[in-house]
Structure formats: C-alpha cells, structure tokens
Prior knowledge:
By secondary structure, the protein is of the alpha+beta class. The chain is built from six helices and seven strands. Strands 1-2-3-4 form a four-stranded antiparallel beta sheet, with no helix packed on it.
Amino acid sequence: MDSIQIHGSFSSEKHLVSAVLTKNSQKGGPSDKSRLLGCDHHKWLCSPPGSAFLYARQEVQHLLEPLAVSWGWEPERTNLLDLDGNSSRFVLENEWQGTRDPAAYLSVPAAIQFQAEHDWPRVRAECHELLREARRRIEELTGLPGLCPYSPELYAQMAAFPLPACDAAALQRRLYDEYRVEVPVIEWNGRQLVRASVQGYNTHEDIEALVGALADLLPKVS
C-alpha cells in the first residue's frame, strides 16, 4: 500500500512556501519520481487568499480527488471537454470548479514585486526577532520551556508556545471577544499551546497586546 509523506520548505529565492509530497511504496523509500508541489502565496507572500496552487506530476495525479468535482467530468460517457476520450481524468475532474475567481492569482506578480522593492529578507529577519520577543515574553509569563531551541533554522515567523493546563477553546474565544487578539490556541497530545505568527505588518504593540491578554486570561481559564 502506498503512503504519502509531507515535507515543508521555504524558498526565499523563489518567494514560495511549498510542501513536497513524496510517494513511498511498501518495499522502498521516497521516490523522486512521484511528487507533488504545493505553493501558498497567501500571507507570507502577501497575496490574497485563493492564490495557492498544487502541481502534480502525471504519475501521482491518480492519488488526488477534488472536494468539488469539475463541471467537465462525467463518469460514464464522453462530454464536450473530451470529445475524443483522450483527455486526462485529472484535468477533467479539476479544471472547471464552479465560478472560480482568478483575481487572486493575477495579484501574485505584484506581491512578488512589492517584496523585491521592500528588501523582504530584512523584513523576514525583523519578523523573526519579533517572534523571538513574543516567545521570551510568553515563556517568562508561563514559566514553561519552549518546544525547540532559539534558532532561525527551526522556526522563522511562526511558532507554537506551551501554555499551562487550561480550557483552550475558552481562551481562544475570550482572547478575541475581550481583547480582539486573533490567535489559534491548540490542543495537542494533552497539552495546550498558543501559535503566534508574525508578518511585516505586525509590531511590538501586537506582541504587548497578546502577552497582556494572556496574563489576564490564563488564571481565569485554568
């Protein structure tokens, strides 16, 4: 039986966040010939939602099934998009998914140009330092150690920090309702974590707001 492994990476040269999925067989390890490439331009590239794409090599296209089947696919007979019966099932299942708006994709070149004009490697480095500050402040507040060492090789602009035992759902709801701080609070392996992410538009004031809200709410939801 085949399995799929997901490997995440970020390419500063290509301005892409990607997840490479490699197909493993029962008998062997990863196969370079069987892979997919997914790129999400939203948030880190500053494009709007809906600008991501997934590229699938032909030999693994049969592993993918769309949540919304394309208008062009019919299971039992040839249709107007496949008059000679030779079109790819993968294309027919995915090409015409309702009223997809291409505007988000058209914004990607402008997002790449914007980052090139604003020295984005510097912005990313500043965001990492701001996230390090958030980590330090949250660890001081909770007294709990981090999940990994302080290293840009292990996290860049997003990381999760352990919290004392608490009602995660209540904490996330009250962070937004009472402080307008929108951040995921995660339950994982019986532990609670707050996951912070920092982009070029975030400031020290945002970190102050998060830490201050946690300091007030954690005793109330524990």
